[in-house]
Amino acid sequence: MEHPPESLAGVFPVLQTTFDADDEIDAAALAAEIEWVYDCEVDGIVLAMVSEVLRLSTDERRRLAELFCELGLPHGPVIVSVGAESNKVALNLARHAEAAGATAVMAIPPISVAVGDSELAAYYQGILGAVDVPVVVQDASGYVGRPMSIALQADLLATYGQRVLFKPEAVPIGPRLSELRDATDGRARVFEGSGGIALVDSFRRGIVGTMPAADTPWALVALWRALQAGDEARIEAIADPLARLVSLMDSLDAFVAIEKHLLVAQGVIPSARRRGPLGYVPDAETLAEADRLVARLRRAVDG
To answer: Model's pTM, two decimal places?
Structure first.
């Protein structure tokens, strides 16, 4: 099924990678997760950083991309993260994702070395030249790496047109989003990527979609629809507990840990197992607060 760049919009959760007791990818649990998020009426799915791609081997990343496409494409678009520490690996991952059927690919810059705009431009130009599908340029510096220049992002859009989309996560999120919008005369198609904590403000600055986690897609869909409808009372009712929930997740490891806990708590996946080494382990009080906020969020959505 063809999905032109302009059709990539709405709620695209970044799924959690499910692992079994042997630390292997649990395909059956992943299938259940994909079915569940689509039951929540999301618009597409994403394989990205919160999917623990940085803790997967290249072969595992390829296998996971294939699983996402096999299980997800019957429902809607699939975006696959292909960012890597070298141009060659990123290009190979991008070509593989396209061959597997991915609707689009997404790439963070290399994070182990600080590179200038000319090298970073060559990195993204290589990916854009290697595939025909849309490419989402992800500035993940809110979590890893350093911010990308607005000028570089604007130049990529000017050169490659609407095949380039953006997921800016550098702080301050709002002002930089407006700067990118203004630098591209409003042509940049942007996904919010803060887990939803900046969704209301970002929507008002012109985004086309959001890439939150997969733990509460039902809430993000409800909030997105309220934003589209201009239902201020419903926006406020949902956004407040959502922001408080996301505020518990102050690192990449915290996002993964708490999101997996919430997926298990909702009966979606059987295990919250993560790949080690673990930089963050939530305590019982944090998990209890996450559960309380999800219950409050559910009451706000059910209204």
So the answer is: 0.96
* SS3 label, residue 246: helix
Based on C-alpha coordinates, what's the Rg of the chain? 18
56, pLDDT greater than 80: yes
Cβ-contact 11, 220 below 8 angstroms: yes
In 3D space, the residue among 106, 25, 34 whose CA is nearest the CA of residue 69 turns out to be: 34
Q: Which two tokens stand for residue 254?
A: 């915290």
| Under 8 Å between Cβ of 205 and 179 | no
Give me the helix-helix angle, 252-265 and 284-302, nearest 10°. Answer: 60
Spatial contact of 112 and 54, defined as CB atoms under 8 Å apart: no
**CB of 213 within 8 A of CB of 255?**
yes
pLDDT tens for 151-166 read 999 999 999 999 999 9
Strand positions, DSSP E, the chain: 10-11, 45-47, 78-81, 104-107, 135-139, 164-168, 191-192, 209-210
**Residue 274 neighbours by CB under 8 Å, 6+ apart:** 19, 52, 253, 256, 257, 260
Say how many C-beta atoms besides its own lie within 10 A of residue 133's C-beta: 18
**270: preceding bond cis by omega (within 30 degrees):** no
In contact, 116 and 129? CB cutoff 8 Å? no
Q: How far is CA 21 from the centre of its chain?
A: 26
| CB of 210 closer than 8 Å to CB of 192 | yes
- Taking each helix axis from N to C end, the angle separating 58-72 and 87-100, rounded to the nearest 10 degrees, works out to 30
Q: Give 267: exposed, middle or buried? Use CB within 10 Å, 0-12, 13-18, 19+.
A: exposed
Count of positions (residues) in the chain: 303
Q: Strand, coil or helix: what is 151?
A: helix
